[in-house]
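BUG: 3D viewer hangs when loading the predicted structure for this chain

Environment: internal workstation, default settings.
Expected: structure renders.
Actual: progress bar stalls at 90%.

Input used:
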Amino acid sequence: MTDSPTGPVSEPPTDSPTDSSSGPPTGPVSDSPSDPVTGPPSDPATDPAPRRRGRPARSAEDTGPGARERILEAARELFAERGYDKTSVRGIAKAADVDPALVHHYFGTKDEVFAAAIEVSFEPAMVVPALLGEGAEGIGERLARFFLSIWENEQTRAPLLAIIRSAVTHETAAKVLRGFVLRRLLERIAAELDVPDPKFRAELAASHMLGIAMLRYVLRMEPLASADPETIVAMVAPTLQRYLTES
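Structure tokens produced before the viewer hung:
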């Protein structure tokens, strides 16, 4: 008995790679009833709230107490360096590393930012009694020394520089300057000394001291810019004394 010849065994037909009518689907397969593109449905109990478009979310660093102080510090420096007209809310926000909307949130308008930034760290009403405590004698010297001391102090110099640089071109700064230097300080001193024309005398004293501030601290003209403060006091005091006391 002989074995019967065997022929080649036929392979089962395979799908052609170009045949789109058979074979498994080509798209993503998922056992979940979710959308195959976007993934499983969101769970409101565990998924974070959707992010709103527009203004970026604020961090604790942006909205904490330090943010307001950073804004004021940045505004003070920019106003002192550039003046009112060349300082913008966007520039202040950039320097303070906060969103510009936060500047408006804390202070409102640019004028209000300026007013808050240039508020000096002392109250003239508390200074006047000290200046007048020893009577009219020597008031010129005490006033000159006090005026130079607030300019020599870095903390109080910045807002005063902002006022001086901005007052020439902006009414808000000019109003602050008039109110601070005249009504809140010099006019009170002149009124307490009971001399004729106190307002006129106060303006003369103010013009003298503001001129020194402009040349020494803004324009930095030499030799005045480098002069010792006590030397300036000695030269200026007699003139202030005459303005405020002589009839």
